[in-house]
Amino acid sequence: MAKNKKIIYLDYAATTPIDSKVLKEILPYLKQEYGNPSSIYNYGQKAQEAIDKARGNVGDFLNCSPSEIIFTGSATEANNLAIFGTVRAWQKRGKKPHIIISQIEHHAVLEPCKTLEKEGVEVSYLPVNKEGLISVSDLKGAIKENTVLVSIMYANNEIGTIQPIAEIGKLLKKFKILFHTDAVQAVNYLNCDVQKLGVDLFTISGHKIYGPKGIGALYVKKGTEILPIIYGGGQEEGIRSGTENVAGIVGLGAALVEVKLRQAEVKDLEKLRNELIDGILKNIPDVKLNGSQEHRLPNNTNFTVRGAEGESMVIALDGEGIAASTGSACSSRSLEPSHVLLALGLSKEEAHCSLRLTLGRYTTEDEINQVLKVLPSIVNRLRQISGIK
Amino acid sequence: MTFKYSKKVIEHFLHPKHWGKIKNPDSIGDTLNLRCGDIMKIYIKVGKKKKKEYIEKISFETLGCGAAIATSDMICDLAKGKTIKEAKKISFKDIAGELGSLPVQKIHCARLAETALKMAIKEYERKKKK
Questions:
Q1: Which of A112, A382, B71, B119 suits a disulfide with A308, CB 3.0-4.6 Å?
Q2: Nearest-neighbour CA in chain A from B50: distance (Å)
């Protein structure tokens, strides 16, 4: 890592720095206001009031009743609760459930579904087109008599493709099938009115929206049958036991208020994002943009760079003080290329040679220019080493 | 996902000495890791010293992660000047050892480098018999 150089952070899809206003609101609940919200003395009640206020903020943001919000320890947990909770409730009736998800869901949705599949639950994995979009008519065709839940992410974390959530919501209304969307990547930029979207379950995360880590929330539409996955003292209406993460909840609420205030900035971010895409496509030969041009998150870029492997580009960029991510995860658990890029129809080699740069609230034009300055020579060098030009 | 690499791995990744093709090589070891997709090629040119064959020139071309490039460069360091008999004995453990430390998940890169060199030598010996 280059020392004494400011880091150029271009991995906002992975996590975001906490907003200073949000931090200020959180701090008292880590120190002075340490009361347990379940306690009836004044100290505990102050914590309870803070939670109520944050729940109101979330309700305002999602256009739902605060009582429809369940706070969880992460968005992964919220996704697990949405899937296991509704399927288990259905199984109580002794029926065999069927779930529909897309092939490009986040692991926090894929893995719960695979686990249920091993237990005998039917799961359909909808394919996507080369832009990463599911087809609503495919979805309609996949519906069965025993379909209980559809879970389609709002926007993809790797390629930024935005799914037609409102259209899906409209379709599923007719079938009385529960509709869950993992909206973690969407909250900063897209309409999150759960009424307009027609969803029954909606997952959000704190740390993707300039709030703290370790906090997520699930919107559960009133009347939805759902069982807990964590049992204990009966907090969160019995759906999520465990002493509330007061500071985290306060932070999530405050972060959403800030997101709403900053909606005008989205256009500028998109412009900056386009400068990055255009610059890379222009300055580096043999590069392809993965995902959709039109249906794309305003902060996402994902490229396949022929002849330059993803991780090696990330390490070389790190050497220049730029924090990026591989488009494809050669993760510690698996060496397989990204399931998302493969679902788009990319070859293993193409998926292997991909780079994700995600912009955010603090990204500047100078930073984009710096990337455009150093990336071509990094790619050129790696191509020389690989012998693939 | 990226890994915490040692300074030596990063050094060999950022400034490899042995990359590129050799003109008229005696043989090429060409390997592919089907799981992670790394492609590694080792070029060798064999010389003779006191009736013993040795690796006179060696180079690599690698499409792969930081560890794949670093291990490619390191095996070239280790093999250069060695007799064929000695070069055959170079194992992934030697490569990882010389690099200081290699993340467990990246040991397969060192194995790939070992395989590539062994393939190059085998190919050389096969050609010689003809």
A1: A382
A2: 34
